[in-house]
Amino acid sequence: MTMGSALQMALMAILPLSVLAYMAARRRAGADNARGTEFHSPLVYYGWYSCLWVALPSMGLFVLAGLLHLLRIATVPGPVLAGGAVALAAFGLVWSQRAIGRDFRAIHSVEGAVRWALIGASCISILITIGIVVSVVFEAMQFFRLVNLWDFLTGTKWSPETAFLISTGRADGNVATPEFGSLPLFAGTFYITAVAMLVAVPMGLFAAVYMAEYASQRVRRIAKPALEILAGIPTVVYGFFAAITVSPLIVHLAESMGLEAEYTNALAPGLVMGVMIIPLVSSLSDDVINAVPQAMREGSYALGATTSETIRKVVLPAALPGVVSAVLLAVSRAVGETMIVVMAAGLMPNLTWNPLKSMTTVTVSIVDSLTGDQAFDSPQTLSAFGLGLVLLVLTLVLNVVSLVVIRKFREQYE
Amino acid sequence: MASLFGIDEKKLLRKRRAAETRFRLCAIAALVLAGAFLVFFLFDITMKGYPAFQQAELLVSVNYTTEAHDNPYAAMDPDTVQIVSRSFTRLIPSMMAENSRLIGTTKEMWVLASADTDQYLKGNANRLKPRHQALVDTMRQEGKARLAFNWGFFEAGDSKLPELAGIRAAAIGSLYVLLITLAISFPVGVMCAVYLEEFAPDNRLTQIIEVNINNLAAIPSILYGLLGLAIFINFMGVPRSSALVGGLTLSLMTLPAIIISTRAAIRSIPPSIREAALALGATPLQVVWHHVLPLSLPGVLTGTIIGLARAMGETAPLLIVGMMAYIPEAPENFNSAATVLPAQIFTWASDSQRAFSERTAAGIMVLLVLLLGMNATAIWLRNKYERKW
User: Fold this and answer.
1) B184 touches chain A (CB under 8 A)
2) Last residue of a domain, one of A143, A171, A193
3) Is the dihedral of CA A86, A87, A88, A90 positive or negative?
4) B234 and chain A: CB distance < 8 Å anywhere?
5) Which of the two ends of chain A, N or C, has the fewest CB atoms closer than 10 A to its terminal CB?
6) For chain B, what percent of residues have pLDDT higher than 70?
7) Given this model, what pLDDT does residue A374 score?
8) Are residues A135 and A248 in the same domain?
9) Across residues B146-158, what is the average pLDDT?
10) A136 shares its domain with A261
11) With contacts defined as CB-CB under 8 Å, which chain B residues touch A206?
12) Final residue belonging to a domain, choices A143, A166, A192
């Protein structure tokens, strides 16, 4: 019996037991109440109290057993576990009935338990972070045991394909040694990010300026949801659009100008990614532009400045920290973006300045090495976690800097 | 007027006004360009996708001879076999085995055409030989070839034959994954938000949690895929490609979004409501349960729906946990292999056949309609029930 089926069987007993506990305790308190005993708490709380006594310890037993099993300390056999949990639930049912009396403050006990549950739920967010960091760091450490960290960061050749053959012992003498120089991947990532920023920052900023300073209420009511639609389109759809529509367009355009473009060029995913990020930049900038005090604008108008002069010389400088923070968040989004580049940027690691050439990114090689044929201890698979670690650190730094900058801004004006 | 300080004011003013106009035009252009992109994008996807909602069918006569029982390709004349979908031809023997009265009869019936015939009828590039093209042309003139509404697209799962491939399995997979995402991220997210807004003391732990949530919201989704692979699959032993592991991964990704929007909804409720309840003797939990949560429900639901819509369109983490395999059947339970709509779109998009590219766009249309519907519901909820205090 696996743990899952043990849990299912135990639940079949525990769920009715907890309902029974609720009803029994509630009825007992109700009967005493009818005889004239004044209870401290509303009567339902006595029911809930008993119910918690049935459900919590038995479920806790499962959590404990699950942890022991996962940490490979001990495995409790399923029948024992299910039996123990049901016994614990039955004990809780009997035990909790004893406490029910006139002076027992059930509401405090129940609220205390619920409060702990709320704290537990809040701590899950910390657990997720720990989970991400641990999962990435542990595998990355294994990877860096096989591959020198310095070579990884500064090498210019990325060809991990043969690592799989070598690790499974299928390599014969003439297989090339795999190389893990991640520089071309990061170069590709930043190149495509830069293209995306060239689209997203000016367009997002101008859109935000127009909406905050020029647009009438009506225009804003239409333009804002329209931009939100752009943000709501799934990235896989953008990827398809970049690969099927934008890429061929770019190739034709390049041909008509006498240039040669590859179908998986860096320009198409960059441009489409830029459009995808416009709403992010514009909504964040819109917020900070609106947070600039009206008095500053009025002061500028009073000195005879035109609207655009006020925006360029007063509003934007005042909002600059917020705009910088928005741009940093946009960069972090672009660096971590996966589907668009997977579908449109190609797989060839390529160190080049030519945007019409194929390039690959960090996220593409993560996906590439974790889908399809894989052995979990092969350096190629592990390389995904090495890249993931760098990606994690990069986005965390960008986010933290952006948070600090925006906090400074808010302290100044709000 | 004589010029002060030797500056020509009129010229300067003209220059400044021209700059003003230029700036304003730039700002409008940014919005117009973004709008134009949206229109072009939707138009392009629709033009590519709508033909897939029609599928070619051919009226052919099928001879259920005994010979056809062993070699189904003998059931039709050799040229017709080439333009009919193999999925139909393959089924002839089993049809005869099921219904023995068929043997020896000849029937005229509408059957599914092959993907190339379908593309030819729609006027697209195809690999049909000229001889077969001519045959399709004559059949069209005789009214024996038609484009019918493609019900199969909504009723079938994935297939190697483009004319047979549909989105049903992926849609059901998406539903399973979303159910798990909702079941985990909604209660946990709301509980976390309630704690942070209503109970948390301003201490170190609370600050850590707050910074943490903001960071989680900005972590690239693919890293959640790495978490799912390392923790859920390799450590906990959740089956790879299952709806369970996909749902777990996406619920972690959706959690910060739900927490943030729920907190905003709770914060917008004025303190006077809480104080009134407390003054009447309610406990803190009663204040939350009886007043704060019901009043903030529209905002909470809006945030949850938008978060779920994002989870529904997410692909990258699901590729990492193996939900992009060729899975033609709808999942039977949370542990069986499943695929989701965006992953199906990705799989079709990487297929070079023209008929698949058409289906990819059609799948995108379905996905976009679903997502827009969810977002519209969320906005409608917000506008209808949100109260300004």
Assistant:
1) no
2) A143
3) positive
4) yes
5) C
6) 98
7) 62
8) no
9) 86
10) no
11) 26-27, 29-31
12) A143
Instruction: Please tell me the least confidently modeled range out of A159-173, A346-360, B81-95, B313-327.
Output: A159-173
Residues A293 and A337 in one domain: yes
d(CA B51, CA B59) in angstroms, rounded, equals: 20
Predicted structure pTM score: 0.89
Count of structural domains within chain A: 2
Q: How many residues can be counted in chain A?
A: 414
Q: Which domain holds residue A133?
A: 3-143
Task: For residue B218, give the nearest of A206, A229, A332 by CB distance.
Answer: A332
All domains in chain B, ordered by first residue: 54-149 (no CATH), 168-385 (1.10.3720.10)
Q: Which chain B residue's Cα is nearest to A369?
A: B320
Q: Are residues A138 and A183 in the same domain?
A: no
Domain presence at residue A161: no
Taking contacts as CB-CB distances below 8 angstroms, the residues of chain B near A309 are 16, 19-20
- Identify the CATH number of the domain in which residue A224 sits: 1.10.3720.10
Predicted confidence at residue B109, as pLDDT, reads 84
In a domain, residue A166? The reply is no
Higher pLDDT, A205 or A17: A205
Tell me whether residue A165 is in a domain: no
Is residue A39 domain-shared with residue A102, that is, in the same domain? yes
Please check whether residue B25 touches A, CB under 8 A: no
Average pLDDT value over all residues in chain A: 86
| B179 has a chain A CB within 8 A of its CB | no
Cβ-defined contact of A128 to B322 (cutoff 8 Å): no
A252 falls within a domain: yes
Q: Give Cβ neighbours of residue A1 (< 8 Å, ≥ 6 apart).
A: A9, A77, A78, A79, A82
Handedness of CA B50, B51, B52, B58 (dihedral sign): positive
Q: Identify the closest residue of chain A to B254 by CA–CA distance.
A: A125
User: Which range among A202-216, B18-32, B195-209, B266-280 shows the weakest confidence by mean pLDDT?
Assistant: B195-209
User: Is the same domain home to A139 and A184?
Assistant: no
Please judge whether B34 and A203 are an interchain contact, meaning their C-beta atoms are less than 8 angstroms apart.
yes
Angle at A268 between CA B52 and CA A369, to 5 degrees: 85
**Partner residue facing B216 (CB), from A125, A210, A338:** A125
- Of B321, B223, B121, B326, the C-alpha closest to A335 is B223
Instruction: Chain B: give the shortest CA distance to residue A63, in Å.
Output: 13
Decide if B168 contacts B155 (C-beta within 8 A).
Answer: yes
Q: What local confidence, expressed as pLDDT, does residue A169 receive?
A: 61
Cβ–Cβ below 8 Å for B209 and A123: yes
Best A70, A240, A399 member to test B by mutation, with max B CBs in 10 Å, is A240
Predicted confidence (pLDDT) per residue in A24-55, tens digit:
888 888 888 888 778 888 888 888 888 888 88
Task: Find the helix or strand (DSSP H, E) in which B63 lies.
Answer: strand B54-63
A–B interface: beta-carbon pairs under 8 A: 249
**Cα separation of A28 and A386, whole Å?**
61
What confidence tens digit (pLDDT) does each residue in B64-91 have? 887 777 788 878 888 888 888 888 888 8
Closest CA to A345 of A181, A179, A190: A190
Give the model confidence (pLDDT) of A240-274 as tens digits.
999 999 999 999 999 998 888 888 888 999 999 99
* Enclosing H/E stretch for B59: strand B54-63
Please give the residue of chain B at the shortest CA–CA distance from A326. B218
Q: Judge if A196 and A294 occupy the same domain.
A: yes
